Records
---
Amino acid sequence: MDSELVLVIDFGAQYAQLIARRVREANCYSEIVPHTVSVADLVARTPAAIVLSGGPQSVYADGAPQVDPALFDTGIPVFGICYGFQAMARALGGEVAKTGLSEFGRTVITVDHPGTLLGDVPVCFNAWMSHGDSVHAAPSGFTTLAASAGAKVAAFEDTTRRIAGVQWHPEVLHSEYGQKVLSTFLHEIAGLGSAWKTSAIAEEAIARVREQVGDKRVLCALSGGVDSAVAAAIVQRAVGDQLTCVFVDHGLLRKGESEAVERDFVAATGAKLVVADAVDQFLGHLAGVTDPETKRKIIGREFIRVFEEQARALESELDIEFLVQGTLYPDVVESGGGEGAATIKSHHNVGGLPDDLQFTLIEPLRTLFKDEVRQVGLELGLPDHMIWRHPFPGPGLGIRIIGEVTRERLEILREADAIAREELTASGLDRDIWQFPVVLLADVRSVGVQGDGRTYGHPIVLRPVTSEDAMTADWGRLPYDLLEKISTRITNEVREVNRVVVDITSKPPGTIEWE
């Protein structure tokens, strides 16, 4: 990577991934490191700048992560956000204290001395806050730039040392001028250029895979989603027929998707594809199971078993050394990948292979966000409908059926889901909606009237959400006439359903998927 490197130090904030993405939007390459990394190790990475993320703790809490003051003697430009801002202030000799006035959500920021950091923003604007402690006094040599009702010092800078920080979260969309503030630090205070472009990702990834693999054989588990498809396409472009893809058909995909994987991916890439029909195996093990985490574990376990069986056969024939995974940055953080970050739910990926069947991992997308993955896919020539497919969970419809997973219930959900997706596409709103889970409340029935008789059918929940990276999400405001059309078609065409409802919960507090 020829671009200047910006390291985001993760203090346990789910937003660390979003900060890294915002840095990239400013055309600077970013990576995330845990707060436990030493200053010596940071310096060894030769970063052009460092960003200290927010975090859930108080700087005064027992065991709370702190910033080594030696960091500020390295000459590396540093930007602190929320917890990182307070930890920076404390390490540099400033005063951090509890005011008794916490600020959560939209907060008015008043700029007193714009300086360089806030030179291009209005005197008053709204920003997103989430803090109990606050900085009472800036460190010596720093200029206080702004304040809020609960933060006497809400921003400061020392342009000579190229250090600055803010109490609010500039990385979230709710913060006005957030990207402007972050870009000003990177380009005007830290002095970075704008060399990193998403157009270079594909070429660099292909070159890295080609160098790593050499003349060895590679195996890839293809799920039907954009992530595994793009990862496989990168490897296919790098090493050609040295790659073999395995598609495990677990019977939990949406209508027509299994057929589309077999048809479209091969047509677009020319990759060798082995299809394992394991529908009976998965449904057999899911019989009688209603707990969502247990369903996830079973689906993950059986996926490994089927994949292992296919891998053994191929490995003995082809002497395979590498395994491709379509892991993304958000996968890592939601699985508790950053120190201090809570595990939200178990992610389904190709892990857990037995000791006697171990491969060297290739994860060409591990440092990328979903929008960057899509850009790479387009550059590699994958079809639009594959690239713009809404994110879909590894356990598939198994976690969109609330209750036991059966063939009958899967067919009900497939038909309802197909109608919702078809109407969303026809409305031209596909790309305005990040994800559109359709959920079957299989253990719930409600009374209805259809025709001249009473019915006792299942409710279907529509869950359209808008997001940029799935870290946070809001419910999608679909037009009423579209919702009406979807509801009417589902209740007319899917006889087992007599009620359609819309989930209008944001994330947080609710996750995007119901299970």
---
Amino acid sequence: MMWGCAVDTKTIRAWGLALALALASVGACKAKPQAEDADDVPKPAELATTNGEATATEEGDAVDRGELDDPRAAALTIARATSAATIAGRGEKSLGFRIDKISHLFALAATAKLPDWGAPGEGEAKLARDDDLDTAWRCEFGGAKPCVLGFALPEQAKVEVLRLYAAAGPRYRDYSGHPRVAKVRVHSEAGYVDASVADGANHGYVRFDAPIDTQFIAVEVLEVHGGKRSDGLVHLAEVEIFGTDGIPRQPIELDPSLAWASWETTSWSGAGDHTIRHVFINFASAGLIERRLLRATAVFGQAGDDYLLFERLHGTDCVEHRGSYLLYDKRNRMIYPLGDLGGAGANVYRHTNGRGFAVGWIGDGQFTVKGMVEEGGELKWKRPPKQAPADGEALLREWGFETKAQPRGVALEGAVPGCHRAALGELEPLVSAANLKDAAKQDPAAWIVCSVGANTLYATASCGAAAQAYQLSGDKLVGKHVGKHDDARGLRLRRVGDRLLVELSATGGDTSTLLWAEPDSLRELASNGGLFVRPPAACSACGDEWVNPAGPVYASDEEGDEGDDGGDEDDEDEDLEDDDSPSTAP
């Protein structure tokens, strides 16, 4: 039974208390870590946070992602277990495809705190509970006291799973330079359990063989995967506790219209057979305060949906694509691995009520669409029939899915509200304000004109030309971006109210710059980022569509056949030399 759809009265009462605490929350938001090198470029002031304070944007909106500590949890002492628990545990890269075995779990409310028997570390303990991989509690491993983070629960709970992210970032040199957690000891009222943690820039799990009845959890670092630097500074960026019978943690608020992918150099490495680099999905909240949530290449859904779908492309040879999908339940914070569904890079279809997704190809004699949807409080697989249906869209509707695929950003040719192709003479205000004489000689149809409140945005990124974007307030230029080279591969846009996300491609589409256009401001969100990861430049000179591997392909009806869960992406894929400069290899 899915939590949140049919629960007992105790859980309902607990959820009500958690919601009340959430509504009363006035905790401070956390700071991003300071740049470790003097040559690091700070982010725009509008995106920055400050230590211990809510951050005010130019509009004066304070952003607060904190959760109010329950006084019962705040008063609890985190004890050090002196004997092993009778319950065993193990580290896992994924919780597996048997969704029915884990769908009863939900994230538990907890107060992060530092036990007096552990090292003080650096930063606040609550940095490991702010849904942001760019903030972390840090600790020098190997000191007189162990590196340990405690988590006090408001009341007894049955804990079954921990989800950890224990690596530095976002830059690859920080990830590879610092040690990464290799083994932990989990302390509880039942004793301690030791478990290994797989190396990599992905979330990992500690799973117990049976529920542990406890009111606290402490995660102690026992061993590390060595980093390239001489320091022993480990990072605990995120710790989520899952179980039953306790007080649920408040749902997470994620709006996919304010999400984007980011990477450090280009999104792909290699030639012939391309491999994805470290790519993460970022979300913005009020005032564009951003957070790096998890490793993925795209996210689909709508703000009011219960579920989001994360796509994790791993590699491609331009015809066959490798990847997997994760279903994220915003209510209980669980991440369900779905394998490659109906094909990595294929069309994504949203459930009409936001209760799931399906992925696959529909064509002449082809129907690979496979998905997951919540029905009657339970998550259920939707698998293609053994023979392709005569009307694939009719089957999608029968399953409850939309028949129009989710957009991977709207290209110049698409219909973006408030945007249109420039007409003859429409570039004259731009030519005058920006002294852009070359624009007067260009085909105006290569430009798109959009309203941004009372402002006007002019943008172009024609294949093989330099990407450009200019924003005018009346006849005044308020912002611009011009690509350094004639290497664009198209323009993508996403409207968010009277504002726009503008993706200007470069390096043949292997990277792009993402801009945020709002009235009287055009700012850079990511120097290397986009709405979604595009196919490698070598796969298409000017196109952005993922190739449908031709021919009918059907998934088996057997349980557990979902394929790779995406936990094994190569973490040595950044092609960065020892001097931290990008490699010259393609």
